[in-house]
Write a structure and sequence with these properties.
The protein is built from 9 helices and 8 strands. It is α/β, with parallel strands linked by helices. The strands form 2 sheets. A 5-stranded parallel beta sheet has the order 2-6-1-7-8, with helices on both faces. The chain has a 3-stranded antiparallel beta sheet with strand order 3-4-5, with helices on one face. Strand 3 and strand 4 form a beta hairpin. Helix 1 packs across helix 9.
Length: about 220
């Protein structure tokens, strides 16, 4: 089956989706990494994030690959491994802007649909259950308070030794990104009507994973 996990930045989608895919033996696809790849290339080439035509061209013409297994996924663009380089806050903020561009979304959604069309996939992002795979058998909307998400990002960046903003600044950036994601004209972040809502604010990763696996088992009639 296709399992779609949507939600705002910092809700734990990648970690949870990876764990669910591992438990089920499914393919894991992190669509956010694809938008980060486009943003990374735009920044590297000095392309303005206001230049929708140029951003669309990058998304259409670049070779973006997600390789490796669920525990060692690598992100490549035009043959270059940029896995570590796209994990910075700068690229994350740029990706949030890039993802509002309709031409970018059309190009990447088409690729995501090709990647997951055979099923047996856990795909996470912002519009998987509403635009990429509205027919997905299991849809999850994974949420958390902005305070909880800021705290998680703060800890992650500290552990990765990335330049860390203050907790207050990180919370403000997350809320700004939420607003951008939810109000963009093309495929805004929204909960699909048939998605199961999961608030991870006070839950461990294992608890969230078990809840989602319970939804999967229910869908399978087990």
């Amino acid at each position: 089956m296709i399992i779609a996990i949507d939600g705002p930045a910092g809700a734990g989608k990648s970690t949870v989706a990876r764990a669910v895919a591992r438990r089920l033996g499914y393919l894991f696809i992190n669509t956010g990494a694809m938008y980060r790849a486009v943003a990374w290339k735009a920044l590297r080439e000095g392309v303005s994030l206001d230049d929708d035509d140029a951003l669309g061209r990058i998304a259409r013409e670049s070779l973006i690959e997600l390789t490796g297994d669920v525990d060692s996924m690598r992100v490549l663009i035009d043959g270059r491994d940029i896995t570590g380089e796209i994990a910075t806050p700068q690229v994350g903020q740029a990706a949030s802007i890039v993802s509002t561009v309709s031409a970018v979304r059309r190009a990447l959604v088409a690729r995501q649909q090709r990647m997951g069309r055979e099923g047996g996939v856990v795909m996470e992002g912002r519009d998987i259950g509403t635009q990429v795979f509205p027919e997905a058998e299991v849809k999850i909307y994974l949420d958390a308070s902005s305070e909880a998400r800021a705290q998680r990002r703060f800890i992650e960046d500290t552990e990765r030794r990335v330049a860390v903003a203050s907790l207050e600044q990180m919370k403000a950036e997350i809320e700004e990104r939420d607003h951008r994601d939810k109000t963009r004209a093309d495929s805004p972040l929204t909960r699909a009507e048939d998605a199961v809502y999961v608030d991870s604010s006070a839950m461990t990763i294992d608890e969230v994973v078990e809840q989602i696996l319970g939804v999967v088992r229910q869908s399978l009639g087990r």
